[in-house]
Amino acid sequence: MTIPRINAARLWADLMALGKIGAVSGQGVTRTALSDADLQAKDWLLTRMRDAGLETRTDAVYNLSGRLRAGRSRQVGLIAVGSHLDSVPQGGPFDGALGVVAGLECLRTIQEHGIDLPRDVELINFCDEEAAHNTGTVGSRAMLGLLHDGEIHQTVSPGRGTFADALRRTGKDPAALAEARRQPTEFSCYLELHIEQGRRLENAGIQIGAVTAIVGIYRYLVTVTGEAAHAGTTPMALRNDALVNAAPLFTLLPEWVHACSPEMVGTIGRLEVHPGAPNVVPGRCRFVVEIRSQHREDMAIIRDQIRAYAGARGGWQVDTLLEKEGTPLAEPLIQAVADAAAQEGLSWVRLPSGAGHDAQSFAAAGIPAGMIFVPCRHGISHHPDEWIEPEQAAQGCQVLLRTLLGQANRA
Hints:
- The protein is an alpha/beta fold.
- The protein has helices spanning 8-19, 36-51, 97-112, 138-143, 163-169, 200-204, 242-260, 296-311, 331-343, 359-364, 390-408; strands at 55-58, 64-68, 78-84, 121-126, 187-195, 208-214, 216-225, 229-230, 265-274, 280-281, 284-293, 316-324, 327-328, 348-353, 369-374.
- The model has no long low-confidence stretch (mean pLDDT 95).
């Protein structure tokens, strides 16, 4: 089968147009899930899906889909392709967006070249991949029945809205969550193109990454309770400072992680001090500990160390926010991506992903999932300086198209 060429100029123009939604000069792109900017991006995509002749729908958790119907006698199991349009605060224009826009470009190319497929192909923009309200990959996990009970009503920060609150704001009913559920048997596979968000490909001068696995993520909310007091009149010896009590763990965590596994990472990326005034001794300190690894046994070791450390001290509480295991991707799809890259004359390498992605939800639900990485400049992501070159976007999209067509015609 002759593989057509995607329209690289159109792909880049769409990426640049989308990148303006939620952008502030010098401050990157802010399209947090179900914000006004995110809803505007969804409308932007919906218009282009309809212009491309796709059958569109928005589900109960605001996942947006566009389906290209098979022309020949339809084989069982559609191919899903996609990613997410929501971003972190002050992020970049390519994280998630590349996968969605490239998926759209692939479907346009298939139609424009009159390619008659035996399977439906569905482009999906998943909602709240970036954990704007609590934990991430909400849309894909809702679709595949992987959300925890009550999760959409939880938040890690007092006063911060929940995913359920955001759904209500858009006019959707959180009680209708189950309506987003789809059966794994509906899908034959899932494909996702993404920037690497690291510097392995760039440093090695390699053009394509065939992703082998996605790391697990364990995330915990730690609350340390002390006693608020006047900062000027309370002697140091009489203080029960919650922040000071919590502080040793901030340096112990990286020591534990480094000693356990060179592959594992641990981060404390959110910290709240109450009441948060310069003249008040902190009475409460709350922070989120995140551990990532391909190996659940290693993450469990660090989790147990945190719980033991907290249990030996008064005023400490550890609540589980997320325990998502590392997930291997489908070997046939890993090889299909590698083969597609080689057939396009591109260098490639197998490598795991240190970031979570919607592909992980499909793999966890037993649906074969594959991912394609392209390099990003200096490995920077989740930052206004996130960038890829037009040629890299086109190369990744072309590999996605070749992989997609191969899977669509697979018996």
